Each structure stands twice: as structure tokens, then as C-alpha cells.
Write the C-alpha cells for this entry.
Amino acid sequence: MAFNIAIDGPAGAGKSTIARRVAQELSYLYVDTGAMYRAMALYFQRNRISPENETEISAACDQINVTLTNENGEQQVFLNGENVNAYIRTEEVGKITSAISVYASVRQKLTQLQRELASVSNLIMDGRDIGTCVLPKAQVKIYLTASVETRGKRRFLELQEKGVDCKLEQICEDIRQRDEQDMNRQISPLRQAEDAIFIDSSFLSIEEVVNQILDLVRQKISFTS
Ligand code: DC
């Protein structure tokens, strides 16, 4: 049986950095489910389908094919055969993603694909509903969070490094709005699974969080073998 690690948490908590490192250490596959939702959002943006129009979004789902490959440990996301990694990280696509991920048709499509991947590969998967909905039987579940201020500051520094002009207060406000939307939607809202380990990374280094997760995985593996 494949060994599955689920990491959920709000935007900017450091899930992808940490999940990527844990995957490297264990030689597991890393699956970033946010990127899959972002690829769908890009399709709706490009085809001028409003995030508010659930009927059109649901009808368009059949025309969308999201696939993943892994190149040198880096996940590549394909939208109908096109590698879209370079287009899915904008703030605009992030906002559309949060809005369209409330719909059952969108979630069903991606949940199915995520479960298929997890059934055949040892992997670490990050997102919002992995421990609660996608992989309720994952052997290790983590809920990773940090304060809005910490997450805002991290994002601010990231954008500054890329030379993007931005304001810390605005970034914190966007994060608050995204939390509100992700935590209060009707289907698969972001919340901690009952059996997930809570980690607040506000005052922890990446290394400390990675080691904490590796310890949990090793304990679990030695307990079950
Ligand atoms: O992790 P991220 O910031 O790339 O995710 C973008 C959006 O996708 C996020 O606002 C909520 C949505 N998402 C989701 O609803 N379920 C997931 N498993 C992953 C992401």
C-alpha cells in the first residue's frame, strides 16, 4: 500500500517549500494540488468564463484536462497538453482560483485525479482538503499554519525579491480575504482534520518544520513495519 502524507493549511504557511523538502528527503512524489486548481482557473480566465458563473464553469469542466509530470523533483502542470507552470502563479490567477474552487464540479474532477495518484505512489500532497476529504486515510496528516502577519511578510519579501511593487498591508488584507473564502466555503472548507498534527510555523525555521514532519513519518513507518 502506498504511504501518503497530507499537508493542509492556509495560503502562505510554507506548505509547498516544506512538502518539497520532505519529498526530497524521502524520495516521495510531491503533489501540489493548488497548482491543479490554478490550472483550471487559468482555463476559465483565458476563455473569459466568469468565476461567478457556476453553470458555465461546470459545463466547461469536461473540456479541461489537467495532468502532472515530475521533472527533477519539480512538478509540471499541463492544461490540455500545454505546460502552464509559468502562468499560474500570478495574484490574479490566485484570486480566480480561490473563487472557482468552491464549486463541486471543479473539486470532484481534481479530487478524483488526486486519489488516483495517491493510490499508486508514496507521496506528500499539499492543499486545503487533503487530510479531511481527498485522503482521509493518509498515514500522516499535518495542519501547517502561521499568523497572517508572518505569512504576509513572507509573501512581501518574495515579491520584493522579484522586483514587484507591493504594499505589506494590502498583501495581509488579501491573505485575510483568501482565508475567509477558503475556510468558509460549503464544500471541503479548509480545516484541520481531527487526526492531523498542528504545526504553527510562525517562529520555526523551514529546517525545524521539515525535521518535525520527518520524525512523525519515521515513527509511523517503524510502528507499522
Ligand atoms: O495553495 P495555493 O495558494 O496554490 O492554492 C490556490 C487556491 O486553490 C486556494 O485559494 C484554494 C484552492 N485550493 C483548494 O481549494 N483545495 C486544494 N486542495 C488546493 C487549493
Q: What stands out?
A: The chain is about 50% helix and 15% strand. The two ends are 12 Å apart (CA to CA). The mean pLDDT is 95. The beta strands are 4-8, 29-32, 66-71, 74-79, 82-83, 123-127, 140-145, 197-200.
